[in-house]
Write a structure and sequence with these properties.
9 helices, elongated
């Protein structure tokens, strides 16, 4: 019985040595051919079970299941962002940012082509006093009404912008001084009747400028502002006198 065991052990040792020799021979052959030895180990790694148990006592098994990678949230769309940035929410007109851009573009066009253009500034005075009497929400309803009148009596190419609480800038392309004054008179006649009928004295003052071929629009805005203030002083004296 002991002899049989010795024989079996010897046979196993010979088999192990033979396998080692064969394995070493294969590795040498692969290295000579320029192939990486790790190619042999790859099937061995792939044959491991997907879930391994922990070797430490009391340590929970690690979950090696494949986890779907986190995907970033889609970026919000801003297709209408430019519109909201350049639009006054109360009246739907251009706002100050849109007006500044428009003035630069029109100034460049005027210098290049020399076409006539006029500017108008309109401001409603007395709105704060009306708000003290009827409330801010009720008083502010006059702002869209003024915006509607400024738009209605203009033409399709004209641009109206709300640049202050009750202040508007108007661009009149292809418009000389005579046509600009006609536009102002139409707006004034439409608004004065219902502005003067209230319990609080309100007045819509307007100033204009029609720059010459060599004048820029920034200088024209100063001229329009001066005329606006002059008209406001006249309206104030007339209301108190």
């Amino acid at each position: 019985m002991d002899l049989s065991v010795d024989v079996i052990v010897a046979i196993l040792i010979v088999a192990i040595v033979a396998n080692l020799v064969i394995t070493v021979g294969l590795l040498v052959a692969l290295v000579r051919r320029g192939r990486a030895p790790r190619a042999i180990a790859a099937p061995m790694v792939a044959s491991r079970p997907e879930r391994e148990t922990a070797v430490s006592v009391g340590e929970p098994a690690l979950d090696t299941e494949e986890v779907e990678p986190m995907r970033p949230e889609p970026e919000p769309a801003y297709e209408g962002g430019v519109v909201s940035i350049l639009t006054d929410p109360l009246t739907g007109l251009d706002n100050r940012l849109a007006w500044d851009r428009l003035l630069r573009e029109e100034n460049a066009r005027k210098r290049r082509y020399g076409r006539p253009v006029s500017l108008v500034i309109a401001e409603l005075y007395g709105l704060d006093a009306l708000a003290d009497l009827v409330g801010r929400e009720a008083a502010d309803k006059l702002v869209p009404a003024i915006a509607e009148a400024l738009t209605r009596y203009g033409r399709a190419p004209d641009r109206v912008a709300r640049v202050g609480h009750a202040r508007f800038h108007i661009l009149l392309p292809e418009t000389d001084e005579v046509r600009a004054i006609n536009y102002i008179e139409r707006v004034r006649q439409a608004c004065d009747l219902w502005l003067e009928a209230g319990a609080v004295a309100l007045n819509l003052s307007l100033g204009w400028a029609s720059p010459g071929p060599d004048d820029d629009l920034e200088t024209a805005m100063v001229t329009a502002e001066d005329r606006l203030l002059a008209e406001h002083r006249r309206n104030s004296r007339r209301a108190t006198g």
